[in-house]
């Protein structure tokens, strides 16, 4: 634990274990943010640590930074000192290689992020813009003091990015694919409030004929193979369902030659402490489970956003994990996209975020969305070189998005 003084009479503290932080104070601060997600809740971050998933032994050394104004938690963020770039989904391997080629050390570096979770949302939790700016100054001061090569704020929201821009951090864009529960406005029709879909068929009717036909064919293949789905949320997810989910999750990683990032103990914590944040879709064949997918859900209308003049955030779903113990043609698309989208329509969820990468998601009406990050490099020459690289990369991303939007799956 390190305590010092930093501007505006705010006292800053570094916690090496999230369990040392008052959960109520952390979650109260999260509730005031523009874009809260379940993944920034204290229970989620603490579970990553206590389960052995994101700990020094796996290359994630927690250094959670807290700013106090007397007894009030004015700002906070999850920071990790990293010895590698795994589990981040914002790729800087080329930067690390360039440092090594010049005889310089890129690791350790500092990361403000949720481990293994490429979900956009609030990262720099703060009571106001001034506290957020002070938090960033403290982060950079910590990096300088401990001779870290760099600071990376991943998947932050617009308040985070505005603070990072004001502090001189470089911004980077990547693309994810998100589905929105709103009927597209017909061409030539004046702007009006968009309406949600009333059913999966209503959603299909918004697509071009070829995309609509493809989705129906894919769903039919799964149904004709005798596969049926059931879903469960929260306390209705039985212990044997969680156990089956982990078998599927683990197999998916092992089939790709990697050990899974998250341990069984992590999901055990989710089942007991954050059950209502999860929905499980289980595929069954002749009564036996053969595959499943897991999504997280942010409930709507329960945040204290209006304290800052912000509306309470609407319900959002996040595609997270999937796995299968049997091979069925097109089962992945049914489990990971069509079942969650159908569930979102039935439950009034406004958006389904499909996770990192995946241009193929556009054929399922998940459209490109920019997901920014912000970066500070201590070495001036490398900071200049990376800034020039990011300018070129940003231009390329812009052209890529234009190309994607011309391939919209929706009816013209």
TrEMBL record:
Pfam families: FemAB_like
Xref: InterPro entries: Acyl_CoA_acyltransferase, FemAB-like
Regions crossing the membrane: none
Domain of life: Bacteria
Protein name as annotated: GNAT family N-acetyltransferase
């Amino acid at each position: 634990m390190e305590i010092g003084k930093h501007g505006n009479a705010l006292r800053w503290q570094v916690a090496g274990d999230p369990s040392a932080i008052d959960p109520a104070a952390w979650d109260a601060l999260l509730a005031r943010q523009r874009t809260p997600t379940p993944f920034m809740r204290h229970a989620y971050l603490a579970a990553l640590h206590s389960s052995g998933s994101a700990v020094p032994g796996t290359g994630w050394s927690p250094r959670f930074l807290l700013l106090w104004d007397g007894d009030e938690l004015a700002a906070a963020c999850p920071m990790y000192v990293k010895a590698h770039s795994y589990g981040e989904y914002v790729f800087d391997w080329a930067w690390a290689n360039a440092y090594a080629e010049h005889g310089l050390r890129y690791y350790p570096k500092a990361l403000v992020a949720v481990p293994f979770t490429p979900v956009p949302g609030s990262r720099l939790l703060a009571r106001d813009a001034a506290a957020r700016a002070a938090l960033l100054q403290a982060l950079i001061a910590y990096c300088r003091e401990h001779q870290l090569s760099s600071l990376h704020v991943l998947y932050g929201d617009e308040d985070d990015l505005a603070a990072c821009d004001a502090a001189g951090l470089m911004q980077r864009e990547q693309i994810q694919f998100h589905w929105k529960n709103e009927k597209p406005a017909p061409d030539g029709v004046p702007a009006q409030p968009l309406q949600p879909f009333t059913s999966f068929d209503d959603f299909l009717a918004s697509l071009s004929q070829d995309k609509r036909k493809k989705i129906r064919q894919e769903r039919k293949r799964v149904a004709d193979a005798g596969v049926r789905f059931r879903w469960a949320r929260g306390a209705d997810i039985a212990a044997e369902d969680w156990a089956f989910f982990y078998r599927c999750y683990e197999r998916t990683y092992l089939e790709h030659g990697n050990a899974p990032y998250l341990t069984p103990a992590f999901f055990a914590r989710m089942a007991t402490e954050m059950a209502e944040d999860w929905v499980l879709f289980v595929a069954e064949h002749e009564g036996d489970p053969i595959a499943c997918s897991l999504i997280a859900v942010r409930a709507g209308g329960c945040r204290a956003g209006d304290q800052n003049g912000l509306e309470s955030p609407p319900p959002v779903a996040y595609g997270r994990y999937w796995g299968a113990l049997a091979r069925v043609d097109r089962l992945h698309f049914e489990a990971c996209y069509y079942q969650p989208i159908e569930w979102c329509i039935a439950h009034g969820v406004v958006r389904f975020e499909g996770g990192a990468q995946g241009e193929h998601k556009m054929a399922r009406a998940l459209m490109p969305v920019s997901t920014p990050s912000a970066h500070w490099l201590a070495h001036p020459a490398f900071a200049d070189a990376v800034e020039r690289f990011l300018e070129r990369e940003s231009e390329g991303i812009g052209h890529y998005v234009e190309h994607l939007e011309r391939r919209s799956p929706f009816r013209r």
